[in-house]
Recover the amino acids of this structure.
């Protein structure tokens, strides 16, 4: 099972694959979001290199749009291009109506009409809905999900992506349309309205494969503000219920701590903004955090305040002393697609995103830090965390692969870097032994 965090410079694009490595085929795949750039810039070349010439059109069992922001849906612009992708089922937060000729992907409930689910303006209609109509008309998009269609009813619903060695790989919907999972078939709504950011309507999922757990949730927030809401605090309790079995330290010679609600790895919400990944939510005790960030000056992400909060709250379940850490195994890993220092704004420290990350996480024996644009002006990887290239060819992506051995009892996984432009298929960066479901 592989999770590809595709470097699209700005926005998110995550691909989940079940990979038959013996036959080099992909029995099942999911694409979550598509970045801000035109698909031809990043996604199409990535798919071509990943799937090969034998699969000129990438085929996805599910395509998920987490919410209505351009840095998440703009890459779907070429959805109706027969050389790009084919999709069996689309899952999104709804809140829109298509022409009557396309009833299969019109949301069946009226909640979206009342709240607009965080936006559905001219750009959304011109880009995303137009792409859906075009793809549906050409048979490149088959249907809207008949499992996750209405909220809060479908919070807690599970879809099965496929199986690996007879072990199911599933996605559980834990956040959508302003609702968050709090318990078994239970959810909590917040005081949301048309004034709320589309971020508050983000779809969130927990991926499970045996003892491996992964969390992804678009731009979900963890602090209350003028146009966004704290959903992470509620969700932290919901994950305790969902993942109620105790997780124990992988290495018995290290701390014998235990915890419920543990997540092995997560795609950091909202690209590492100053109002995501709050201290309550970080009780999930992840081993790996992956941030999809870019070069937008007005965003300047990942924010230094987020980085400092991550450093102070990030305590992996399997934390080891140096003397007991197996060779090549890290306790925690931070992988960021792009890191820059930005111009100052109103006296803030937003100019220091790259500086802070290096200062907080580089050179530590317990932490693996890597970012995907560490290239000099000549396009050569520096390896010294001094580069910040904007060249599209100097964009590393990160692949998380899960070890199927003993997956029903323990979680072991790896992080690889890939850059097809540079001829790098998969280069191992970090190995993680995350937790067990019972004591030694």
């Amino acid at each position: 099972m592989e999770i590809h965090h595709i470097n699209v410079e700005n926005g998110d694009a995550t691909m989940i694959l079940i990979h038959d490595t013996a036959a080099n085929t992909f029995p099942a795949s999911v694409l979550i979001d598509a970045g801000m750039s035109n698909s031809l810039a990043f996604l199409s070349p990535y798919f071509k290199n990943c799937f090969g010439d034998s699969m000129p059109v990438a085929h996805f069992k599910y395509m998920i749009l987490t919410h209505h922001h351009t840095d998440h849906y703009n890459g779907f612009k070429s959805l109706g291009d027969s050389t790009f992708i084919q999709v069996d089922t689309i899952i999104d937060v709804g809140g829109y109506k298509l022409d009557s000729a396309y009833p299969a992907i019109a949301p069946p409930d009226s909640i979206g009409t009342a709240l607009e689910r965080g936006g559905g303006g001219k750009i959304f209609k011109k880009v995303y809905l137009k792409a859906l109509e075009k793809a549906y008309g050409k048979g490149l998009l088959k249907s809207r999900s008949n499992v996750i269609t209405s909220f809060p009813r479908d919070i807690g619903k599970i879809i099965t992506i496929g199986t690996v060695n007879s072990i199911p790989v599933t996605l559980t919907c834990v956040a959508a349309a302003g609702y968050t999972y709090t318990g078994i078939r239970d959810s909590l709504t917040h005081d949301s309205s048309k004034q709320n950011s589309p971020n508050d309507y983000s779809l969130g999922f927990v991926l499970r494969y045996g003892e491996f757990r992964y969390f992804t949730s678009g731009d979900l927030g963890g602090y209350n503000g003028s146009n966004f809401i704290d959903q992470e605090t509620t969700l932290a309790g919901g994950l305790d219920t969902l993942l109620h079995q105790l997780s124990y330290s992988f290495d018995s010679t290290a701390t014998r701590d235990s915890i419920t609600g543990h997540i092995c790895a997560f795609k950091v919400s909202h690209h590492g903004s100053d109002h995501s990944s709050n201290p309550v939510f970080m009780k999930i005790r992840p081993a790996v955090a992956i941030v999809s960030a870019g070069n937008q000056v007005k965003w300047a992400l990942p924010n230094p305040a987020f980085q400092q909060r991550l450093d102070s709250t990030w305590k992996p379940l399997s934390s080891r002393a140096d003397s007991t850490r197996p060779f090549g195994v890290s306790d925690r890993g931070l992988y960021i697609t792009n890191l820059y220092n930005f111009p100052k704004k109103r006296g803030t420290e937003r100019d220091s995103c790259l500086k802070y990350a290096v200062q907080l996480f580089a050179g530590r024996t317990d932490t693996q830090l890597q970012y995907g644009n560490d290239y000099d002006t000549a396009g050569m990887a520096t390896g010294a965390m001094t580069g910040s290239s904007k060249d599209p060819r100097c964009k590393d992506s990160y692949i998380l692969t899960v070890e199927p051995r003993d997956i029903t009892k323990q979680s072991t996984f790896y992080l690889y870097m890939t850059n097809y432009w540079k001829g790098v298929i998969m280069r191992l960066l970090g190995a993680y032994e995350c937790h067990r479901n019972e004591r030694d």
Q: What stands out?
A: The chain has one domain: 2-436. DSSP finds seven helices and 21 strands in the chain.
